[in-house]
Structures are given as structure tokens and as C-alpha cells.
């Protein structure tokens, strides 16, 4: 009887253990359990994920889902008791604010979730603005931009850092220290003559296309407040005849293989070129279709990581890094470029893509950290160690038509104030997108002339006409 009771208790306990629900807990770098984290530290230090109740001795997947439903994937291994200790982080130091869900899923689909709120740095209290927020290269050379800061301590000592489109940063180095006024305000005119660098070596600010970041720090005693803003330099005239220059300050780390559509190139792992013009290498792609990109590349060292990024000028405005044109393909760690490491990603040709020859740029860039990685967002300027290769995509519609002139589709006047006439020879749908690909307007039309009346702020937009067999996009300028 006693033995039977022991057996029953043993079976009950075993069933209890087996039925134990999976759970995960989140900790910061100080091993303190957390439910929120500052956006910078979510990238730089990440989050430790501890779990229990999972399949023993197996690999599981850790997934971060951000508020926009974007996902990042990691892995962890459970021990003989079904416990694990893993680590996750955000992709960049500017994480998406809000509630992120971290999920753990094992091979038997046992799942546990935990939420963490990504918050703005409480010290980021300065109001930093710049005018204009977008400026052509020649306008910057002639008139520059104006920086304004409020919320400083009265007569506070300031430090200002300027971040290039390529990600490198330099400090503003004036002849004398910078101070706020008695009201805690500060202003500075920034142009090509503004000295930046270090005390022993300064230079002016070069005119480089892309997004420039400015960070301002209050250096009052016991103070750590700061703020930031950005502005973009754009080319004077939109053109696909030429593209911005890109270079290296360090050593060449070759992109040893590029496979995308009909593109299949190989480069020696000891190639010494910073830039390779492969624009004569062409692949055909179709609007709405997806294609797999596979890349191999050399890392800086056996212990270091390099990231690979693709830039594609879908809207033919001569800029390679508009929103929706930058693709983080993946990273290689300690790769020789001829080993079995590669990165892979699918790229879908967007609906706003303009038909015809389209520039694609591939960048291999050294990342100082193999965990909190550097992911380029700018296609221009000077990078450290790596390599750049340019290619050509021939974009067409689903019918294979890549020549806009073959499609009867006209917009007049262009530029306009939002009132325009679109003329087509067939029925279809007209849509207007911003340059990031966000749909702003849609209208079904018959053949002939159609009046379009939209209220849009000044800028460049993309007007797409799509029939049953054709799709073509034209740029329009709203004044």
C-alpha cells in the first residue's frame, strides 16, 4: 500500500512537472528584472531572456516583435531541465518606442511571451531644431543651416556633435567654448566653414548627400541633458545619370559574391578596390515580384563582424537612401569571404518603382561590435573598412514593358499645386505615393482625361497608373 502511494505521488509529481507552463523573464545588464528599457540601451546592452518549462536539450527561437510588427530573430539552447538563458537586442540605437513583445518558441511549439516597453531617454530634454530641414548641396555651400537649442541651463557650456550620413561623427570645434544665454537658449549657424574634428586637427563640413544628425549636450556641472535633430542634404537636380560618391578611409574588405536575379559575380577575397563599378552587370526585375539576394564578404578580422546593405533607387530621383530603398541584408562574423558564410534576404520590387534602368548599390561595412551592430542607412560619403559595388536593375511591369514611352500616360501640368489632369488610353487605377511609398490617394479612372484634385504639402510625389496589364509611375512636383 505504501509503495503504491509512492508511485501515485511520483506519477502525479511527474505530470505536474511535465505540464508546467513555459515562461520567460527579462533582465537588464545588471541582472535586474525589467519591464522597460531606454531605447539606446535596448541596442547597446540588450536584454537577457531567462526561460523555463521548455523542451529539454533543444534549440529554441527568440523573436522580438516591435509596435510596427517588425521582427528580429535570435536563438538559445535549453538545458536538461528545459531552462535557458538567451539575449536579444534592437537593430539600431534609435529603437522604435512603445511595447515590444519578446517570444520564445521551442521545437514542439511551446511558447511564452513577455512584454517590454522601450522608452525615450529621460535625459533627452533639450529642444533642438534646424532650419531648413532639407537643403540642396549648393544651398548648403552658399547659405548653410541654422541650429537652435532651448531648454538648456542658463549660460550652460555646450558640446555639439555632427553625424555624417555614413555614420561617423565629429565634434564642432569653435575658436572658443560655446555657452547658452541667460535664458538657456543657444543658436549656431552651420555651413562648410564650421570647424569640426579634434583640437589638434579640424576641417570644414563637406557637402555630402544624405541625412546629417546633430546632437547637443548640456555640460553644466551635474547635468546630463541632451537633444538631437537631423537635416538632409539633397542633390541640386534630380538625375539618374550619376550618383553620389562613396569611399573608404580604411582597408578594402571585398564583397566576394553577389547573387540577385541574373546577377552572379565573384570578386577575389584579396581585392584591394574600395569601389567596383559593376553597372554593366544587369538583371531584369518585375514590379510586385520578390527576388532573393545572397551575398558573401570578408570581415575585418576573425573576431569581428561586417554588415551588408543594399540601396536601390526605386523612384529614380538620384538618391539611393530614401525611406523604403535601404535593405539590411545581414552580417558575417570573422568571414574570409570564401568560407561557407553568406547572408540572404528577399527583396520585393515595390509598386512605386519606376520602370527602366535602376541603380543598386551594395555596401560591406565594418561593425565595431559583433552584437550591437552598425547598420548603415546612408549610401554616400566615407566609410571605414569595407567595399562598395554598384549594379543595374532593369525594372519592368508584369507584361515585361520597361519603356515608359510605350505606355500612353500623361500628367499635366507638372509641377502643379495639387490640381492636375491625368490622361490615359485605358481604364485603371491612379494612386499617389510619397517618396517613402506611403499611399496618399487612389481613384478608379476610365480612358481619357481625369481631373485630380489633392491637397498635399510641397514636395516630390509618385503618381502610379495601373491597368489590367500595365503599371507605370511618374514623378510629380507639388509646389
UniProtKB/TrEMBL annotation:
<protein>
    <submittedName>
        <fullName>T9SS type A sorting domain-containing protein</fullName>
    </submittedName>
</protein>
<dbReference type="InterPro" id="IPR026444">
    <property type="entry name" value="Secre_tail"/>
</dbReference>
<dbReference type="Pfam" id="PF20009">
    <property type="entry name" value="GEVED"/>
</dbReference>
<feature type="domain" description="Secretion system C-terminal sorting">
    <location>
        <begin position="412"/>
        <end position="478"/>
    </location>
</feature>
<feature type="domain" description="GEVED">
    <location>
        <begin position="308"/>
        <end position="394"/>
    </location>
</feature>
<dbReference type="Pfam" id="PF18962">
    <property type="entry name" value="Por_Secre_tail"/>
</dbReference>
<dbReference type="InterPro" id="IPR045474">
    <property type="entry name" value="GEVED"/>
</dbReference>
